[in-house]
Amino acid sequence: MDPHGGDPTRRPEQRLTGLPRSGSAPAAPTRPIPGGSAPRPPYRPERPRPQTPDGLKISPSGV
User: Fold this and answer.
1) pLDDT band at 3 (very low <50, low <70, confident <90, very high)
2) What secondary structure letter does DSSP report for 51?
3) Are 28 and 36 in contact (CB under 8 A)?
4) For residue 46, how many other CB atoms are within 10 A of its CB?
5) Where do the segments described as Disordered lie (predicted)?
6) In 3-state terms, what secondary structure has residue 57?
7) What letters, b where the CB count within 10 A reaches 16 and e where it falls short, cover 7-23?
8) 12 touches 6 (CB < 8 A)
């Protein structure tokens, strides 16, 4: 007897995901879950540092 009931050739998980589920393992998400760990941002070159009114550059180390 079919555990899903109904037509054995049409399983709900095949219609929803297009892939049969493997046993009791949940289907792997194809997209990152909102609120999860964010991917690394793209590399951006360093911006020009702000300058003091007299034209001297402020060093980030405070020296």
Assistant:
1) low
2) B
3) no
4) 5
5) 1-63
6) strand
7) eeeeeeeeeeeeeeeee
8) no
Q: For the whole prediction, is pTM greater than 0.85?
A: no
> 7-18: per-residue pLDDT in tens?
656 555 545 555
Beta carbons within 8 Å of 8's beta carbon, 6+ residues apart? 2
Do 21 and 13 meet the contact criterion of CB atoms below 8 Å apart? yes
The pLDDT of residue 48 is 73
Environment class of residue 51 by beta-carbon count within 10 Å: exposed (0-12), middle (13-18) or buried (19+)?
Answer: exposed
Nearest to 49 by CA among 32, 62, 36: 62
The pLDDT tens digits for 18-33 are 555 555 556 665 676 6
